[in-house]
């Protein structure tokens, strides 16, 4: 469910979230004061949720949108050809509207609630952030989101841990990836179900295989070491071995 609250302040967004009508309006206060409104309508997901936002803001926070609106992508043509007073419609049918909603609020800096987003939402934000080439802008908040493992190993906490493991991968956050993979070493529950539910089956299966190999390697050596993200990405024969050029010795078992 989207956040329907409107916070007050000199740099806040005026928010209108009418989810029943599939409309989400994001207008910076500066836009209102200066007499202009948002010029882009993002049409997101299968339900075609509409998100209104300014092209200048999107270009500032996302390399993908910057290229799109500067003429580097045909998807940006609606902005170039738009009629004054109307929004350019940019369709993102394969994306998650709630993830985009939270991503934009976080990057604008008006959402204190972002510190307490659920793991599934954090995962979905990470997927969009990678697609839109805005991962680097989330680095400050990633430390808060991804560096504390779940406190239990029951089913909901395991799902949360897997969601945060995936988010650590897409956010390119090595510390979070190490911590979340280390969390799974303490369990023996198969991860195939989580892997197949991910939607990105190749990544899900790769993560599940890596965790199983990590469990065996740790059990053999009576250790609880997590995975190195850089070496996980580069791995072709084993997920636990330190790859050539990796200097993160403490993130590897002595094989």
UniProtKB/TrEMBL annotation:
| SMART domains, sorted | BTB
The organism's place on the tree of life at top rank: Eukaryota
Q: Which SUPFAM superfamilies match?
A: POZ domain (SSF54695)
Q: Which PROSITE patterns match?
A: BTB
Domain BTB residue range list: 38-108
Query: Pfam families attached here?
Result: BTB
Q: Which Gene3D superfamilies does the entry mention? A: Potassium Channel Kv1.1, Chain A
**Which InterPro entries does the record associate with it?**
BTB/POZ_dom (IPR000210), SKP1/BTB/POZ_sf (IPR011333)
Q: What is this protein called?
A: BTB domain-containing protein
What is the species of this protein? Answer: Fusarium agapanthi
């Amino acid at each position: 469910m989207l956040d329907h609250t409107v916070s007050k302040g000199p740099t806040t967004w005026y928010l209108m979230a009418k989810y029943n009508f599939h409309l989400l309006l994001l207008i910076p206060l500066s836009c209102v004061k200066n007499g202009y409104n948002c010029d882009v309508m993002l049409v997101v997901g299968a339900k075609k949720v509409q998100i209104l936002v300014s092209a200048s803001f999107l270009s500032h926070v996302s390399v993908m949108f910057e290229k799109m609106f500067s003429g580097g992508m045909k998807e940006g043509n609606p902005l170039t050809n738009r009629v004054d007073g109307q929004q350019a419609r940019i369709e993102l049918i394969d994306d998650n509207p709630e993830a985009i909603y939270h991503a934009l609020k976080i990057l604008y800096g008006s959402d204190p609630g972002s510190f307490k987003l659920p793991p599934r939402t954090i995962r979905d934000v990470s997927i969009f952030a990678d697609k839109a080439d805005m991962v680097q802008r989330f680095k400050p908040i990633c430390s808060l989101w991804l560096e504390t493992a779940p406190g239990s190993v029951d089913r909901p906490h395991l799902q949360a841990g897997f969601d945060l493991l995936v988010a650590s991968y897409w956010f390119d956050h090595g510390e979070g990836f190490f911590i979340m993979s280390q969390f799974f070493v303490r369990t023996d529950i198969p991860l195939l179900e989580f892997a197949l539910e991910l939607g990105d089956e190749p990544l899900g299966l790769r993560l599940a295989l890596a965790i199983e190999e990590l469990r065996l390697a740790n059990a053999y050596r009576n250790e609880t070491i997590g995975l190195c993200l850089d070496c996980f990405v580069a791995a072709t024969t084993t997920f636990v071995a330190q790859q050539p050029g990796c200097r993160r010795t403490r993130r590897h078992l002595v094989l």
